[in-house]
Amino acid sequence: MLKNLPTTPQEIISWTWPEIEKHYKDLETRPLNASNVAGWLADWSCVGERIEEMRSRLMVATSINTADKGAEARLKAYLDSIFPKVMAAEQKLKEKLLASKLEPKSFIIPLRNMRAEADLFRESNLKLLADQQKLSIEFDKIYGAQTVKWEGEDITLTRLAMTFQQPDRAQREKAWHLKADRQLSDRKAINDLWRKFMAVRAKIAKNADKPSYREYTWAQFLRFDYGPDDCKSFAAAIEKVVVPAATRIYQKRKQALGLDTLRPWDLVDGWFSRPSPAVGIPQLKPFASIEELKSKISATFHHVDPVLGGYFDYMVAEGLTDLDNRKNKAPGAYCSSYTSIRKPFIFVNAVGTHDDVMTTLHESGHAFHVFETAKIPYIHQLTVPMEFAEVASMGMELLASPYLTKANGGFYSEAEAGRARIEHLEGMILFWPFMAVVDSFQQWVYENPKKGADTAACDKKWGELWDRFIPGVDYSGLEDIKETGWHRKLHIHEVPFYYVEYGLAQLGAVQIFGNARSNQASALAAYRKALSLGGTVTLPELFATAKAKFAFDVTTVQKAVDLMEAVVKELEKKK
Ligand SMILES: [Zn+2]
Q: Over the stretch 95-132, which tens digit does the pLDDT of each residue have?
């Protein structure tokens, strides 16, 4: 057992490298055998958990108060002088464990991950990976510098996008063209950058002895349970089943907006082509204060499952939430984890909108994952694959959705809840075809690296895929902006292939929601059981435990879409 470990939050955030290093040195030099490996892992985990918690607490401190100079300095010191040393020390312990050939109980998955990471590691790639990082910074810079003049003012494209929901169609169109023209003016810069990305990625893959960058990414993302062909089956299933359902949604919205054809300026400007809600309906106003948000979310969770409701109440009581938007708070939302005590912290910037309700439900889903893994002994067993981590959160959005009404202690009248739920379900349906475009494009790029580096060929391919998967929106005369859509999807440039995860998680979430509609108690028991496994079993086993299929086929996707469309119909009848 290690002595002198920090325990209180204050001790944890003030931990110094010399103190940390002593523990790593001890672990590194201790002889390792079958009889002491459990204790060795427990000690390693104790150190790792505190380092992880240190990072979380420092990040939380800076994001809840961006003006806290002390917190900022502590985080910077951690990132500059502790984090790289910890990474190197962790690597040595991983190598020591792998070299020992020991197979500790319920350590199969962590060992598998460590082996894959060790196999992929090449000294010669360190510089190339840093170069790739620099290209990402260049990419961010190009997008960050994009502003336009709107009503006499220089504004960012994000702010311009707010005008896209206004009722005056001519104004929407004007704003849309302004944005498109500004983006197209960087066409050459993005194309130049893309060729550099492709060149460095080809080298990285070659150094790692992988046939292409796709195989490299598969290993890097620890995707053991599915391959590129599965992703292609998934895209084919989406084309067959989801595209017609998405087209029905576009049809419906066209009618509601009183339009002959749906043009890009009739869409909510987001990461996928969601049509604007019918004009003239007032925005939902679910809550007026953070206290109200907390108490209504709590009531909703208690209807989903009393234990989960209890978790949320505990978080509120123990100060493990920061939900309101205020000055000197970082933007966005996240769930962090204090690993040594296995407690979550959720961060939201709520201002009173329906999105805030959804975000709080989503981050709470992640938080429940942290609570449920409290009994898992080692930190190494806590790494949950993204494809399932998002099932916990997206699943919670759906599981909570029937209880958002005032009758359940929630936020809305029946009609308001119906409207919010329809938008949510339709948004999920529309996401799948877009995800299929993004994934199919990248499969093609890295399967054909020569053509993939030819930006004109990329434009053509993206245009083809767009027409196949998103036929409901009329881009005629706007081919340039349609075909350069791949320029504007950050993941394609900065985290290649990292996207199908969301589509797969969504499919899991819908299945769990379906189970809850026939038997709430058993569906919730399965969901919680799956969460409690952390990262100790394979992805298909996590899904199976949650009573969902980890699948890519037409039948599974069809079942999900049928369910979603049936619920939408039900809700429309109630309106
Ligand atoms: Zn999430």
A: 999 999 999 988 999 999 999 999 999 989 989 998 99
Q: How far is the CA of 445 from the centre of ligand 1 (A)?
A: 27
Tokens of 150: 């709107």
Alpha carbon of 215 to those of 129, 201, 202, 228, 285: distances in Å?
16, 11, 11, 9, 47
Six token digits for residue 132: 């790739």
What Å distances lie between residue 90 and 21, 86, 223, 421, CA to CA?
A: 11, 6, 22, 45
Distance 365 CA to ligand 1 centre (A): 8
Cα of 12 vs centre of ligand 1, distance in Å, is 26
64 vs 548: CA distance, rounded Å? 37
Q: Write the pLDDT tens digit of every residue in 191-246.
A: 999 999 999 999 999 999 999 999 999 999 999 999 999 999 999 999 999 999 99
Residue recorded with tokens 């290093």? 21
Q: Which amino acid is at 15?
A: W
Q: What is the reported pTM? A: 0.94
Here the tokens at position 103 are 């197979």
For 69-88, give the secondary structure using H, E and C: HHHHHHHHHHHHHHHHHHHH
421-424 own/partner pairs: CB under 8 Å, 24+ apart: 421/567, 421/571, 422/568, 422/571, 422/572, 423/277, 424/358, 424/397, 424/398
Distance of CA 408 to CAs 360, 397, 420, 423, Å?
Answer: 17, 16, 16, 20
145 CA to middle of ligand 1, Å?
A: 28
- 447 CA to middle of ligand 1, Å? 30
Burial 64-73 (b: 16+ CB within 10 A, else e): bbeeeeebee
Of 307, 499, 505, which is closest to residue 398 (Cα–Cα)?
505
Q: Taking Cα atoms as reference points, which of 451, 563, 437 lies closest to residue 510? A: 563
pLDDT of 271 strictly over 90: no
